[in-house]
Design brief:
With about 425 residues, the chain is an alpha/beta fold. The protein contains 15 helices and 16 strands. A hairpin with a 6-residue loop joins strand 7 (about 180-185) and strand 8 (about 190-195). The two termini are about 30 Å apart.
């Protein structure tokens, strides 16, 4: 009998019978449990403690699947980045280095994306510089602009550090006895030590990325504080407080798609404006903020892309080119990598796999998830146990509920 030391998040009774034949799903029940660490999830599958780790396996952990002969398919829509707190100064007058245009540009130069993709991801990723994925259909169509971005953001640590030093001196910064930058508070006028607070995910390679980013800013003379946690823990800082409170300076963000996008229509509107997402900090990125940050025309271009307000395919691409060029002048994210994630489908299990969404967050989970015999034929019934990094990051309300990928794992099987 299996024993679970972790909280069972949800038991889904997803079966139905008629008088003549079974209807509905193949399974009798589907139980989700929380297993934060990918390696732990793989090891529990090997031990027979659970049937499947349902979320992505990334980087060097993919080798564990190969070594233990666990079948998997890959999906290509996952990507990671560093989201900056968008304000220049907190409400109480503290300077936010990552709210300054010059330091944002310098931050790009401090990030060795090739190293991240090769070492953190063991080559299972492509370096990423733009909000448009390098695997997206739109990317090669605007290759001139995306190449300009790649060149502008290319790793150059010496230049990045010099840019920050010159800018801090220009802003009136001085270094204290510890070698850390101090600035005058814009409200009180008192000198205080500038601190960069990073909210850093622990569940995948964003841990290494966040530490790397803090290390680079320590080289630049800043004191840093690192807050580690899961998605729900860190959302309390970056998603449930106003940017002006400045409870964080950056968050190690992660994104994915529930399908292959042919248009990348939402990328600019979602990541740089208030048009797609209603939560923080995006809700503060209104037209006025966009005009100040990216120049007039960016907000309208992002809206026109999202709503399809263009007459020809070339007009659409011109809108993308405008957004790419404006973002390059004042980047509010560091886009890090587009990863090739493995989704296990162990022997004895059948599932529908999507090349973007993977195994569990597409809309056909309920229709295809099943146990199978040695010939691959479906077995009616059975109780399947699946793990994921976390659940219920936000409340799963029917109206304006959670949009977290983790929560979609248990929401999709309950939908028609």
């Amino acid at each position: 009998m299996r024993k679970y030391g972790l909280l069972v998040c949800l038991m889904l009774a997803v079966f139905a019978f008629s008088a003549t034949a079974r209807q509905g799903s193949f399974l009798d029940s589907l139980t989700f449990i929380t297993v934060i660490d990918q390696v732990d999830g793989i090891e529990r599958v090997i031990a027979g403690d659970i049937d499947m780790h349902g979320y992505q396996v990334t980087g060097g952990n993919v080798a564990l699947l190969d070594q233990n002969n666990i079948p998997y398919n890959k999906a290509y829509s996952g990507y990671r980045g560093i989201l900056f707190n968008p304000v220049e100064y907190s409400d109480d007058g503290r300077f936010n280095p990552l709210g300054d245009k010059v330091i944002r540009l310098a931050a790009q130069k401090l990030c060795d994306r090739d190293l991240w993709a090769s070492e953190f991801l063991n080559g299972n990723a492509l370096p990423m510089y733009s909000a448009i994925l390098p695997t997206a259909a739109t990317y090669p169509a605007i290759i001139v602009e995306t190449t300009k971005t790649k060149i502008a953001f290319a790793f150059d640590e010496e230049l990045g550090l010099q840019m920050i030093n010159d800018r801090m001196l220009e802003l009136g910064g001085v270094k204290n006895a510890a070698g850390h930058w101090e600035m005058a508070n814009s409200v009180t006028g008192e000198m205080w030590e500038v601190e960069i607070v990073g909210t850093i995910r622990l569940s995948d390679e964003r841990h290494e990325m966040g530490d790397y980013f803090c290390d680079q800013f320590e080289k630049a003379g800043f004191a840093t504080r690192r807050i580690y946690g899961g998605g729900g823990d860190l959302y309390n800082y970056w998603g449930l407080t106003m940017p002006g409170e400045m409870n964080y300076n950056f968050y190690t963000e992660g994104w994915g798609s529930s399908g292959i996008s042919l248009t990348s229509a939402s990328n600019w509107g979602q990541m740089y404006t208030d048009q797609v997402r209603g939560d923080l900090p995006y809700a503060t990125m209104d037209e006025e903020w966009c005009d100040y940050t990216f120049g007039e025309g960016f907000y309208e271009a992002a809206r026109d892309i999202y709503t399809g307000n263009y007459g020809t395919a070339e007009e659409r691409l011109d809108l993308f080119r405008l957004c790419e060029a404006r973002m390059r002048e004042n980047p509010t994210h560091v886009w890090s990598w587009n990863n090739a994630s493995a989704y296990m489908i162990p022997e004895g299990i059948g599932a529908i796999h999507d090349l973007a969404a993977g195994t569990f967050i597409h809309t056909f989970v309920t229709h295809g998830l099943r146990f199978v015999d040695a010939d691959g034929a479906p077995i009616m019934g059975g109780d399947m146990v699946v793990s994921n990094q976390e659940f219920l990051v936000n409340p799963a309300n029917p109206v304006d509920g959670t949009n977290w990928t983790y929560d979609f794992m248990f929401m999709r099987p309950t939908q028609d």
